[in-house]
Design goal:
Elements (H helix, E strand, L loop, with lengths): L1 H9 L1 H43 L5 H36 L4
Helix pairs in contact: 1-2
């Protein structure tokens, strides 16, 4: 195992291939997680629609999930707006070696 890390650190080409492979695996994993999240969301929406259509009461747990999801997306939007406004300044500060 030590020889593997030595080879990676000694040869930049091997290191680049390993980094690209690691990024690809990470992206594939995130893609599967996102797909699972979309499917679960669709099932939850269908469940709530069925309850509304049949005239039954939506459980409090589902209402709590809805409230938490709305709050999560609201905060996420704020974070994205802040990053959009100040994000490039962070990158500029990061590249500045004068400190």
């Amino acid at each position: 195992m030590e020889q593997f890390f030595t080879t990676l650190s000694a040869n930049p080409l091997y290191l680049a291939v390993a980094v690209i492979a690691a990024i690809a695996v990470l992206l594939l994993f995130l893609r599967k997680i996102l797909r699972l999240l979309v499917i679960l969301t669709a099932v939850l929406v269908l469940y709530v629609a069925y309850l509304k259509w049949s005239g039954e009461r939506v459980p409090d747990a589902v209402r709590e999930i809805e409230k938490n999801a709305v709050e999560f997306f609201r905060k996420g939007g704020e974070v994205l707006r802040d990053f959009q406004k100040d994000g490039m300044g962070f990158v500029d500060d990061f590249g500045d070696d004068s400190n």
